[in-house]
Amino acid sequence: MTRRETQVAIVGGGPAGLLLGHLLRMEGIEVVVVERASADYVLGRIRAGVLEATLTDLLARLGIDARLKAEGLPHDGFFLADGEKLIHIDVGGLTGKTVTVYGQTEVTRDLMEAAPERGLEVVYEAGDVALHDVESDAPWLTYVKDGVEHRIDARFVCGCDGFHGPSRKAIPDSVGRVYEKVYPFGWLGILADVAPCHHELIYANHPNGFALASMRSPTRSRYYIQVPVDEDIALWPDDRLWDELAVRLGPEAASRMTRGPAIEKSIAPLRSFVFEPMRHGSLFLAGDSAHIVPPTGAKGLNLAASDVIYLSEAIGRFFKSGDAEGIAGYSDRALARVWKSERFSWQLTTLMHRFPETDAFDRQMQQAELDYIAGSRAAQTAIAENYVGLPL
Ligand code: APR
Ligand code: PHB
Question: Which helix (H) or strand (E) holds 61?
Answer without folding.
Answer: helix 53-62
